[in-house]
Amino acid sequence: MTHMPDNQGAVLSASAARALADELRSSLRGEVIDPGHPGYDEARTVWNGLIDRRPALVARCSGTADVVEAVRAAREHRPLVSIRGGGHQVAGSGVCDDGLVIDLSRMKGVHVDPAARTARAQAGVTWGEFDRETQLHALAAPGGEISATGIAGLTLGGGFGFVMRTFGLSCDNVRSLEIVTADGAVRTVSREEEPELFWAARGGGRGIGVVTSFEFGLHPLGPEVAGVLVLHPYERAEEVLRAWRDATYTAPETVTPELLLWSIPADPAVPQELHRADCVMVGAVYGGPPGDAATAALAPQRELGPPLMDLSGTMSYVALQSANTWRFPDGERYFMKSHFMDELSDEAIGTLMEWYSRRPTPESLIVVRTLGGAVARVGPDDSAFAHRSARYNVSIDAGWRDPALDGTAIGWARSAWDAMKPFSSGGTYVNFAGLGEDADELRGAVFGSHEGRLERTRAAYDPEGLFAPAAGRP
């Protein structure tokens, strides 16, 4: 096996940071932000309020040419490098301490070709922005359950979404990518052009270069979609979980079921007496037009016993994609860690219930997502995403506001994850993989049998290890 160089990058001295800043300011159209800049705190802030890092410099790129200049300068000065897209990742890997952030968040271009059913989007685009453009033509690429999530990080890590059993993961819908590699070259990669780099970019996560844009294939979907959202009383939680599990076995590929153990939101659509009550939320989306076929396909997800509320029906695809965003606001504190599972046994369900009962805050939840369908139809070695055969992903998601609860909330999530490990198929989803300190523990679990091939591919395109620190983060 070829190993990446163990390059952690340099902690920039004040004089080295000034020299790098001067060089970048002379070559970038975008903004170069240092700790003395009035926008520094905004530039270093990401979605997860738990992340509080202080980079030496932020190079806020205006386009691919700026990225090339930033990579060239980084290759010369050798700082620690991180790459920021939407900034919505749990581990906050888009920012680093004492190094250079190559910030793509202002690169917002989206071009839709409705005749070809494709869209080219720059790496700073969020799923909400992407959906807004594609839904003008009643087209969609599967991606995200929170509209504020960036397309880049989600896609590079695989990309779960509400219609993934019908249309696959986000990475499965990528036709081509533009990548600036460590040598400063701008490469367009696809199945035909540099296929090994294209393979690594679809599920390989980080460390392959700076992806500046994505070309997605689009599917006819929307503007209205049919879905299920049923709230069940917590007292029936184990019964509902078992019935839901059994219903997933026969769900058609047009249906992507999901189940949450969580609190009922303080939403005007919900009676006030139910606000913040524990419940089981059963959700599913039909990956096609609303109508009789959708109603029939979704029916088993609605028929799991007497509910507290049944909010099922049709809604706009854009509204669906943004429906949960307000429950995960910027600046609150988050920790998420997941397992892939082949089965959801009665014992596993009991363990989930036990640990949910110990959750430290009302914002904390457990999510069970169903894979299979189009996700499993992709060949196991067709992309770097290593968990095609798993039936479920179980994510333990801690959320809280008070920094004094950091240890309690993270400790609960890690302990719950440990308790579920005996039921795991041995895999962890890179986008729900904890924080930086979890990286060494999870490396083999994230990439599985693809880890060696990924390391060889990264080394081939980055022999000096410029992006090695990024490759090592969750």
From TrEMBL:
This is FAD-binding oxidoreductase. Pfam families: FAD_binding_4. Keywords: FAD, Flavoprotein, Oxidoreductase. InterPro entries: FAD-bd_PCMH (IPR016166), FAD-bd_PCMH-like_sf (IPR036318), FAD-bd_PCMH_sub1 (IPR016167), FAD-bd_PCMH_sub2 (IPR016169), FAD-linked_Oxidoreductase (IPR050416), Oxid_FAD_bind_N (IPR006094), Oxy_OxRdtase_FAD_BS (IPR006093). SUPFAM superfamilies: FAD-binding/transporter-associated domain-like (SSF56176). Residues 51-221 form the FAD-binding PCMH-type domain. The keyword Kinase does not apply. Its cofactor is FAD. Belongs to the oxygen-dependent FAD-linked oxidoreductase family.
